[in-house]
Amino acid sequence: MTDLGQRLDAIERVRLASLPTPVVEAPRLAEHAGLARLMIKRDDMTGLAFGGNKARKLEYDLAGVVRQGCDLLVTVGGTQSNHAVMTAAAARRLGLGVKLVLGGPDFTRFDGNLLLDVVYGAEIRYLVDDDDNDSLAAAMADWVQELRAAGRRPFAVPLGGSTGAGALGYVRAARELAGQIGDGPVQIVTAVGSCGTFAGLNLGARLFLPRARVVGISVSRTAGEIAERTVELVRDSAQLLGLETPMSAADLECYDAYVGEYGVPNSAGQDAIRTAARLEGLLLDPVYTGKSMSGLLDLAHRRVLDPAVPTVFLHTGGLPIVFAFEDAIREQAVCTKIRR
Ligand SMILES: Cc1ncc(COP(=O)(O)O)c(C=O)c1O
Asked: Does ligand 1 have an atom closer than 6 angstroms to the CB of 190?
């Protein structure tokens, strides 16, 4: 264990996140869910563009980028991508330029993360009505070639920063969590998108939280796709630590019933946002953490989660997205305008 800790520490990373993030109790939400104890691991407080899980992954993805002489970062994502905005923030933190390939429905307003992309001075190429991962990757590859031909030295960060190296950020997070709550039985619930967080947590739990159950709630892919991708990422990440493939699809627990449609708010997610805000003062967003919390609440109510085992909800961030969804939220407003 100590040996593994040393191996983890020996892998190069660049400091971007404010760590450790706090763990806070959520007693009213626990009671609402029928759980004896619920804690929130506040990775929305990692810093970089208001925080989120990407900061931990980027610490490994960007290790060595400056040393290798790269002068700008290029990455991809959807219109409101947290990964893209946090990569833009990281680029500026490291003194680099930044270019983003984003895709999705046409837009008129620069709001939420898209507005922050502009504040960070990211040049954006926008694929209208096309957020297919392959199209985004192809557009990024073309741009990288153009930039190289023009004498620039770009570094391309893949979708979601989800690489074997990036997942090490969540191996580290598991060790950090063990230091905060001990290594007893625990159920850890997280949103799953491009799978790096889930992969890192599963590997990290195996190494540092051996009695943990890691529960993934998909916000985009099917459970089958997640299992396949996560196994690959765990393998790549484990190799960096000098370990054999330690996990198969059967070892992973992931639910895809709470997605609805990626990027589109659904009523269970909106309910979860309201509940967390009103019971705990805790902010969630409509695309990631609202939906993952709706999964946690449903699994707790149906006793798929064990009510007696302490539960940790990983708050993966993404809060600027709230400001891009006025339409989905304003209907809750209780507001009387008074003119005297
Ligand atoms: C706020 C938030 N939560 C969770 C996720 C999912 O993390 P991962 O892509 O590592 O699966 C993302 C990724 O886009 C995110 O932005």
From this structure: no
Q: Is the pLDDT of residue 78 over 80?
A: yes
- What is the CATH number for 283? 3.40.50.1100
Q: In the prediction, which pLDDT does 1 show?
A: 54
- Do 100 and 226 belong to one domain? no
Kindly give the pairing relationship between strand 23-25 and strand 38-42.
antiparallel
C-beta contacts of 26-30 below 8 A and 24+ residues apart = 26/276, 26/279, 26/280, 26/282, 26/313, 28/279, 28/280, 29/275, 29/276, 29/279, 29/280, 29/282, 30/311
Which among 41, 50, 81, 82 is the best mutation to test ligand 1's pocket, defined by most ligand atoms within 8 Å of the CB?
82
Q: Using one digit for the tens of pLDDT, what is the confidence trace for 233-248?
A: 999 999 999 998 679 9
> Is there an atom of ligand 1 within 6 Å of 310 CB?
no
* pLDDT, average across residues 262-279: 96
Q: Which positions are annotated as active-site residues?
A: 81
Task: Strands of the chain (E only): list them.
Answer: 23-25, 38-42, 72-78, 97-104, 123-128, 154-157, 186-192, 212-218, 253-255, 311-315
pLDDT of residue 329: 87
- Domain enclosing residue 280, as ranges: 2-53+162-329
Mean pLDDT in residue range 170-184: 98
- Ligand 1 centroid – CA 192 distance (Å): 6
Q: Are strands 253-255 and 212-218 parallel, antiparallel or unpaired?
A: parallel
Same-domain status, 46 and 100: no
Number of domains in the chain: 2
Q: Rounded mean pLDDT of 173-180?
A: 98
- What's the burial of 228, exposed, middle or buried (CB within 10 Å: 0-12/13-18/19+)? middle
CA-316 nearest atom, ligand 1 = 3
Q: Are 40 and 315 in contact (CB under 8 A)?
A: yes
Average pLDDT over every residue of 295-316 = 98
